[in-house]
Every structure is written in C-alpha cells, then in structure tokens.
Amino acid sequence: MRRDDRDDPFDDIFSEIERMMEEMTGGVSGANNAGFGNDAHVSIYETDEEIRVVADLPGVGKDEIDIKCDGRHVTISATTDRSDYEDRVELPARVDEHSASATFNNGILEITLDRTGSSANIDLS
Fold first, then answer.
1. DSSP structural state of residue 82
2. Is the CB of residue 86 less than 8 Å from the CB of residue 79?
3. What is the four-CA torsion angle of 28, 33, 39, 41, rounded to 10 degrees?
4. What pTM was computed for the model?
5. Which one of 3.10.410.10, 2.60.120.10, 2.60.40.790, 1.10.8.60 gives the CATH number of domain 35-115?
6. How far is residue 14's CA from residue 123's CA, in Å, rounded to a whole number?
7. Within the chain, which residues score under 50 in pLDDT?
8. Dist CA 116 CA 124 (whole Å)
9. Where does residue 46 rank: exposed (0-12), middle (13-18), buried (19+ CB within 10 A)?
10. Rounded to 5°, angle at Cα 65 from 60 and 69
11. pLDDT number for residue 121
C-alpha cells in the first residue's frame, strides 16, 4: 500500500523543520557558501558621494579574495582550501567601477565606490 503524504498530519511540521535546516546550513550541500554558512555577512552603506560595501569573511586570506564590479553589482568571491564563497551584491545606485578601492583587515573586507549620475546628458545637434 502506498502512503499518501497529503493526509500526513506531520507533513507541515517536517517541511518547516527541513526549511529551517536548509536556512541554517546555507542550503543544499555544494552551495557556494559551503564552509562560510551564515558567518559571511555583507552590509551596504551609502552617502551622497559614495557607496561602501562591507563584508565579513572569517577564515579567508587577502590573496584568496577576488572582487569584480560592473557599475551596478559587486561580486565578491573567496576560495580557500576548505570552501568556496561567492556573493553578488546589487548596489543601490550606479557607481564608477574604476574609482573602487578596497581594504581587508582581520576578516573584514571594505570596498568604497564613487557614485555616478543616473544618466548622461546628450547634446542634440
């Protein structure tokens, strides 16, 4: 006889436990955050002139970090001998990716980017 899960009174409870476990472990095994779990945290701070991205990367060395920016997103990647991490952060405004500077000290990565205008003026001739 085949069991019908729709009639299982514990199905909702087990589904919630599974969802909570996936959230705690960062998803299925092999996910990009494997090894970093919820320890990796990214915050964004903005002023009228610049945007700062601050990421906590515990257990990562400076030479294991790769940062890319396309003007709208910052991608932070880190590869260690025990895990891989990648996070693509959407920025709240367009930035000049060529103005970027970054520092890394005691597991804290800080990236500073200058804001650009939302659009360029076009001369009509």
1. S
2. no
3. -120
4. 0.64
5. 2.60.40.790
6. 62
7. 1-2, 27-35, 37-38
8. 22
9. middle
10. 140
11. 63
